Amino acid sequence: MNKAVLEEQLAQLPLYTFGYLSPGELEFTQRVRWVCRQECPMYAKSWACPPGVGSVESCRDKCLSYENCLMIATVTEVEDISDISQTLATRPEHEELTNQVGQLLRDQGVEPYILSTEACQICRRCACLDGLPCRHPQKMHPCVESHGINVLPVLEKMGIEFQYGANVVTWISLLFY
Ligand code: SF4
Ligand code: SF4
User: Fold this and answer.
1) pTM of the entire predicted model
2) The pLDDT value given to residue 98
């Protein structure tokens, strides 16, 4: 892969930042899975979420089967971050950028495995709820947290800081290749 070309293209996109990491640097933990189960209303309601994505161990094995990982981040300011509708309204743009970056990798002959934000919203009702297979497995991106990934330590290690006002929404995607 030609990293210089990729980075030139990434620099044209409205990303806050991007960086490379080794999948082995990521922390996979049952604690994140516990938070999904206890605190997120999407648990067991999407193929992008646990338990549909499989065990933390199998998710970890999948991620570690790739040599590299590209992290991309976007930030958007909203009026009131405690208003979940305002926060979620910033998500589609991040998802679109994630797809664009995925295509940049494909253009270089690399097929990425992409983890992105929240539960997949491609279909109005996820097939998971009806016990049916995912309708768009090539297009959907499991949530980063679904794989038990605690991304903060590795971001810290990469020297990436998110220091801005209280009403700034940050989204992260990981593209394994
Ligand atoms: S593509 Fe449809 S069926 Fe698959 S995870 Fe997304 S919403 Fe569910
Ligand atoms: S994977 Fe993401 S959207 Fe799904 S239950 Fe966990 S935190 Fe919620």
Assistant:
1) 0.95
2) 98
